[in-house]
Specification:
binds 3-methyl-2-oxobutanoic acid; 8 strands; 15% strand; 43% helix; alpha/beta
Length: 261
C-alpha cells in the first residue's frame, strides 16, 4: 500500500475532499465501498447504533474485532480503519498490541481518541508500521467525565489545546486527524496549521474531509440524530413500512405478498 501519510498529504495539497463513513458489517461496508467512499471506519459508535449501549464506553475489543472482520470481507477499494475501544491503549505497548489485532482482523489502519496525551502511544503504533488516524476534539470515550457531547474550542485555552493536539498527532506520524464537534473557525485554523488532512464531524466545512456515522446519514437510528446531520435517507421508516406490510399480509392471507409457488 502506498505510504498513507504521503497519499493523504497529497490529497490535501490538491484540495481533494476526503470522504469517510462508518460500517460495522459486511453488507454496509460493501455498499459503501461500491459507492466509492475513500475511508470506512469500523467506529466504536458501534456500541450505540448497533449494540444498543448508552455510549461507547462499554464496547470491548472482542466486539470491535468481530465487526472489523465482518466489514473487511466487504471492502475492496476503501481504506478500512479500526477504532480502538477505551482501555485497549492505556500504555504505548498495549496500544501497539491492540493495533496489531485490528490489522490481523482485516483493518488497514487504526484510530484512537487523544492528542498530546497519547502522542507516545501514536508514535509507538506508527513506528510499528501501522497506519494511524487520530481523533481529537470531543472524545466520545470521555463523555461521562465531560458531562455530555459538548462543542470544543469555545475558549482561547481550549482552542490552543486543540491546535497543540493536532500538531502532536501529526508529529507522531498520523496520516489524518478526525476533528469531532470543534468550533468551525478553530477547525479551519487547525486545518491550516498542519500538513495532514483534517476529517471533520460536526466541525464545519473548512476541514479537508468529512466523516459521519452511516446510521445517522441514512436515518437508521431514528431515536437520536445529531444536530449537524441532515439525513439523506429514511431507512428506519422503510423497515417499519416493510415489516407492517408483511405483518398485515400474513395476518390477512397466511402468506406474504408474492408466494414463490
Ligand atoms: O466511532 C465513530 O464512529 C467515530 C466517528 C464518529 C469519527 O469515532
Amino acid at each position: 500500500m502506498q505510504n498513507l501519510v504521503e497519499k493523504y498529504r497529497e490529497m490535501k495539497k490538491r484540495g481533494e475532499k476526503i470522504t469517510a463513513l462508518t460500517a460495522y458489517d459486511y453488507p454496509t461496508a460493501r455498499l459503501l465501498d461500491e459507492s466509492g467512499i475513500d475511508i470506512i471506519l469500523v467506529g466504536d459508535s458501534l456500541g450505540m447504533v448497533v449494540l444498543g449501549y448508552e455510549d461507547t464506553t462499554p464496547v470491548t475489543l472482542a466486539e470491535m474485532l468481530h465487526h472489523t472482520r465482518a466489514a473487511s470481507r466487504g471492502v475492496k477499494n476503501a481504506l478500512l480503519v479500526g477504532d480502538m475501544p477505551i482501555h485497549t491503549f492505556d500504555t504505548p505497548e498495549q496500544a501497539v498490541g491492540t493495533a496489531r489485532k485490528f490489522i490481523e482482523a482485516g483493518a488497514q489502519a487504526v484510530k484512537l481518541e487523544g492528542g498530546v496525551s497519547h502522542a507516545a502511544h501514536i508514535e509507538a503504533i506508527t513506528r510499528a508500521g501501522i497506519p494511524f488516524m487520530a481523533h481529537i476534539g470531543m472524545l466520545p470515550q470521555q463523555v461521562r467525565e465531560q458531562g455530555g457531547y459538548k462543542v470544543k474550542g469555545k475558549t482561547q485555552s481550549e482552542a490552543e489545546a486543540l491546535i497543540a493536539d493536532a500538531r502532536a498527532v501529526e508529529t507522531a506520524g498520523a496520516f489524518s486527524v478526525v476533528l469531532e464537534i470543534v468550533v468551525p473557525e478553530i477547525a479551519r485554523q487547525i486545518t491550516n496549521a498542519i500538513t495532514i488532512p483534517t476529517i471533520g464531524i460536526g466541525s464545519g466545512e473548512q476541514c479537508d474531509g468529512q466523516i459521519l456515522v452511516t446510521h445517522d446519514l441514512i436515518g437508521l437510528f431514528p431515536w437520536f440524530t445529531p444536530k449537524f446531520v441532515s439525513p439523506e435517507a429514511r431507512v428506519a421508516d422503510e423497515i417499519r413500512r416493510a415489516a407492517r406490510a408483511f405483518i398485515e399480509q400474513t395476518r390477512a392471507t397466511g402468506l406474504s405478498k408474492r408466494p414463490l409457488v
